Amino acid sequence: MPLGSRAKSKERNRLKILDSATQLFRERGFEAATLRDIARGAGLSTGALFANFADKNEIFLTVIESENVRVVSAMREAHDDKLDLVCRLHKQLLRGYEVAQNNARLILSAFVMKWSQGASNVNDVARMSDMIRFVLLDTLKAAQARTELPQKAELDCASLILEDLCFANMRRAFQATDETGGFDLDAMSKNLTIQVNMIVLALKSA
Predict the structure, then answer these.
(1) Domain locations in the chain?
(2) Distance between CA 15 and CA 185 in Å, rounded?
(3) The pTM is what?
(4) How far is the C-alpha of 167 from the C-alpha of 111, rounded, in Å?
């Protein structure tokens, strides 16, 4: 097989593996999805799987990174300077939940993995979590530059609190969701309004 054709075939196999893994991780979570089942779902041998990925952790982190990029992009696009700061943050966070809700099990599995796996994986997952925090921090910094927040407001601390809220809210929403439904976005929206209001009020009182 010519080199170009071989590279294309390998890339096709890689995408098949990621598609199969995404489905299985979504349905079963990280621990229950086996490499054999991922390979079977992709229509490939386990040997073909190992020709593309070193282990299940690498597959999982690749899937999570792709999902994280989707969520982060949606949150950035939801930024709206015409809204006040509370509504701006609320819109960004809610948009992230809308995009992530079908893959909530996937995302939450990553943060279980963060505490149960080795240092390399912890760093990889933490880096992806930081991407969400940086979106929120950028919104806070822009608000501060427009004098919506005082200069002494602790923006880094606020962004960390918002990041933690993201995943706490997702965990609670997932626990309250049956197997066929998505998040109760109305309930989540109401909770977000209260939470973001409290954080912004604290920042403004600095």
Answers:
(1) 1-53, 64-204
(2) 31
(3) 0.81
(4) 9
